[in-house]
Description:
Elements: H1 2-16, E1 56-60, H2 64-68, H3 72-77, E2 80-90, E3 112-122, E4 128-137, H4 142-145, H5 147-150, E5 166-178, E6 182-189, E7 210-222, E8 225-237, E9 251-252, E10 255-256, E11 268-270
Antiparallel strand pairs: 1-2, 2-3, 3-4, 4-5, 5-6, 6-7, 7-8, 8-11, 9-10
Amino acid sequence: MRKFSTIILSILAHQTVFADSESSTVTSPVNSNATFIARTAYLQNPYNSENYPTTGGGTLVVNESQVAQQNFWQKWFEDGTYNVYAGGTVNAGADSKTFNNPGPYNRDLQPYSYGANIFAQTGQAAGFSIGGAVTVMNPFFAEPMNGLATQQGTRDYNIYTPTYTQAAISEAFVEYQYSNIVQADIGYIGINNSPWINGNYENNLVSIPATYQGALINIYPGNGWLLTALAFNAAQYGAAPGFTGNTNYSITNNGIANSNGYAASNGTIAL
């Protein structure tokens, strides 16, 4: 009990030691937008948050003094990050009878998939880094698992859950970053800070939901502002065999457009 009381008194003393000091100040919390762009943020990584504990991998965090002692190749290949995300997905929505709807919304035929995604990105050298993500889904037994789905005669049967054997490059990009002010990504990229389009992570999917062929620029001018500009001319859904003209705005009365003859938009630019 005496030891416990001593701990309590020590905590109280620590909290009140500056109570009578006229020079004490209240520190304002750091605005989250001020740290959105950072050397170790890796915004293109679908699994770069502690909210995704099911991934394996890691990020090497180095301070400025360590970076100053590294040469070009050490900055690129000794720093960086990687993640491995694996598992299985089943669309179990058979409570809805939708025989007349096209493939992506026909829940009476449940698609199954399993596989893994590997993301990797180098560290920065002169502000530049490169990265990408590889997806492998259903390497074996795709047709026995999804016989009814594959009989639909199209790989677009389900736009997020692959019903066939898939090996794809979901992301491949070059990134430039200047301090915490500017970050630009170009190539096959994920876009996760737009309220209008799908990002590159969903917690109920193993496949990467959507990536885009284009560019993304984030700018932090200060005072809590974060400006984002994006432009892309094609999108790749998790179950798509490649990038198509569908840019998430191609909506028809029959559902989301894919490479099935529906209209596709010619590109997207937003600020």
